[in-house]
Amino acid sequence: MWVIKLGGSLLASAEGRQALRAWLALIVEQADGQVIIVPGGGLFADAVRTAQQQSGCDDVTAHRLALLAMDQYGMLLAGLAPGLVTAQSELEIAERSWQHRPMVWLPSRMLLADRHIAASWDVTSDSLAAWLAAKLGASHLLLVKSVRPAGARMCVEALVSSGLVDASFADYIQQPASASFFSTWLLGPQDHLLFSSGFVAAHLQQGALAVEASTNVPEAI
């Protein structure tokens, strides 16, 4: 299984929106039930941040609203690509996979049931995508961002300090030895071109940026 997080920032520009549609079309065509999209929060999460600032609501309330914002972005993605189906539980994810359907995760139901996830803006859709990758025993986690640093590898601490991922992301990809291993990669808007012939692991080394963590360093493919 591949977990692909599509950032909400892709909606912010005409180029990003075009790339977003290209990613969705590619996943619909090539996923064969082995790809699940994790939606970012985008403008919906921005609205939650504004609402918290204006209302003064606590972080628990804002956290719940932010998860619903991811649901909204997920439903938007499904609306942009009619071939996509939504999934809200592990059972639905398994069923969609058996049916060879491309899917987008609506995360609020599963995440609200997990009390170990901190109700904080330090845990955003990046960390939650890693949470899902571990939950499903995925082989690869891809973060598609509107900006991709140059180079082939980058340590997770540098990504955190640059603001490209949230502050808790390192904790979510540095898993105990007993946990399922998944490799983690950062991609830009146009990197869908790497997978024009299908989601093949070897294609990751042709242009994706490998995210290195002390216990989660992508091995040579």
From TrEMBL:
One of its GO terms (molecular function) is kinase activity. Transmembrane segments: none annotated. Keywords: Kinase, Transferase. InterPro entries: AceGlu_kinase-like_sf, Asp/Glu/Uridylate_kinase. Gene3D superfamilies: Acetylglutamate kinase-like (3.40.1160.10). It comes from the Bacteria. Residues 2-147 form the Aspartate/glutamate/uridylate kinase domain. This is Uridylate kinase. It comes from Pseudomethylobacillus aquaticus.
